[in-house]
Amino acid sequence: MESPEKNIKLVIQYDGTLFHGFQKQKDGPRTVQEEVEKALERLTGETTPTEGAGRTDAGVHALGQVVSFKTTTRIPPVKIASALRVYLPEDIQTVDSIEVDGDFSARFSARAKEYGYYLYQSAAPVPVLRNYALFVPGEIDCAAMAEALTILEGEHDFSALKNEGSSPANPVKTIYRTGASRKGCFIKIVVYGSGFLYKMVRNIVGTVLEVGLGKRDTRWIREVLESGDRTLAGRTVGPQGLYLYRVDYEKSCCVKANRVKESSGSE
Amino acid sequence: MESPEKNIKLVIQYDGTLFHGFQKQKDGPRTVQEEVEKALERLTGETTPTEGAGRTDAGVHALGQVVSFKTTTRIPPVKIASALRVYLPEDIQTVDSIEVDGDFSARFSARAKEYGYYLYQSAAPVPVLRNYALFVPGEIDCAAMAEALTILEGEHDFSALKNEGSSPANPVKTIYRTGASRKGCFIKIVVYGSGFLYKMVRNIVGTVLEVGLGKRDTRWIREVLESGDRTLAGRTVGPQGLYLYRVDYEKSCCVKANRVKESSGSE
Fold it and tell me: Which of A22, A51, B88, B237 could form a disulfide with B206 if both were Cys (CB 3.0 to 4.6 A apart)?
């Protein structure tokens, strides 16, 4: 006997190293979405199309990716996350699951996302970090990078910091908060905003890194941003340092939630 | 024209995840030693047998493994490390190289080794950490674990903390220093000693973890140690949290060194 259809919000983590990105590809290589859908099918017996909040690229990690899907399973919504673990590979892990309004969409209901990017300074690349942080041989001025990041805060046309290749999107986004902090040999860059264009976070990091390395000053960041010209900005840094931390939604999306989690609350 | 034969001490780092341990195996799977010897052959044109200070197991990492070998290459000894990088896979990295006395042996001249082991506490396993630290679901009492570790300091017969499988060795070793410290969700255990028996560090961690989890008290550690009985000790924890930090030698071994590095100095 089936239950009425429910809409589920599932939070997951993954190591992006061995995935060709989040999004399922036809007859394609291993993706996070395909592994999650296979696990759901094994758990519930239903073919379950899913939607992801952020379509992370190959090599990009997630600590708080959000996936939504509809199901008629009789497993209580809050238990789906732990029940699913048995069927997932060890590079994907579930965090929690709740029932949400029928019109909730992991992708389209998202109000903000937070990304982190890790760099490390060292005389030579460190093998155990090669898939998890970007090696930077030179000295980095963390405070200069933090200052450069603040220029990006607010509502701007971010055309200069997006790559081609994604579906056309409104290039106007709002960055609510940025930060750059040092811990030992690591520098962590955090960017929290309304939404991000294709490779925008990796282009932001590649651009403020020019300032951190003393090659450019913070005025240059403003010029790049105002130019709308991608060729003026810095390089797209590698995917291995990038982590999707959190996706925020309006609290009202989750009225059916059995409990309110930090990961589902908007700032 | 060949140079006279020189004895070289090379310090390397590696990510053990994709290796079946350090030691070369006949017609066997991928090992660190084989990759280093292949790279040396490509660099120098010579078949170059090597010796490693510690024969780390599959999945164990190294930040300061030492390898020694003899070569007639005309590349200056201190430049071998950087020249070799081109021929090494990205999960092995060289740190430095120096010329040492002809009778120096990475394995038999070693006076002390330092290992680190990382645990992390979390509600569920974290995918990006799965190959680099041990997931522990419960609360860990770090101070209790540090106290348990001090009981192992000094000269003891460590038969209770070694696994079978290695060549017979004198089970009497000296542990000079231990430590357990917390940083965020991580706990780092450090053990510095004259030498280590087969799987001894992983057995030490599995045993003091029983104390850290409140299942045993520190007196039990003394009983285990004095019993000489492996079956009384804790489990062998996984290889993924283990890092060979450093191997120390008598300074006199390295009289030919062009420079004295921290990694080659004895404590």
Answer: B237
Give me the pLDDT at residue B19, please: 97
- Whole-model pTM? 0.89
Q: Rounded to the nearest 5°, which phi and psi values hold at B33?
A: -60, -40
Is the pLDDT reported for residue B43 higher than 90? yes
DSSP state of B101: -
Residue B225 sits in which domain range?
A: 111-244
Task: Return d(Cα A104, Cα B59) in angstroms, integer.
Answer: 42
For B73-92, what is the mean pLDDT? 97
Statement to judge: residues A94 and A72 lie in one domain: yes
Chain B residue with the nearest C-alpha to that of A128: B15
Query: CA A46: distance to chain centroid?
Result: 28
What DSSP assignment string belongs to B12-81?
EEE-GGGSS-SS--TT-S--HHHHHHHHHHHHHSS---EEES--PPTT-EEEEEEEEEEE---S-HHHHH
Set of chain B residues whose Cβ sits within 8 Å of the Cβ of A124: 85, 93-95
Distance from CA of B71 to the nearest CA of A (A): 24
Which residues share a beta bridge with A71?
A6
Which residue in A146, A120, A122, A142 sits closest to A133, CA to CA?
Answer: A120
Residue B264: per-residue pLDDT = 42
Q: Does A262 map to a domain? A: no
The whole-angstrom separation of Cα A38 and Cα A92 is 12
Strand (E) or helix (H) holding A203: helix A200-212
Q: What percent of chain B has pLDDT over 90?
A: 85
Q: What are phi and psi of A11, to 5 degrees?
A: -105, 130
Interface test with B, best of A128, A240, A263 (most B CBs within 10 A): A128
Q: How far apart are CA A43 and CA B146, in angstroms?
A: 43
At B114-155, the pLDDT tens digits run 999 999 999 899 999 999 999 999 899 999 999 999 999 999
Is A175 a domain residue?
A: yes
The answer to whether B125 faces chain A, any CB pair under 8 Å, is yes
Question: Does A89 share its domain with A201?
Answer: no
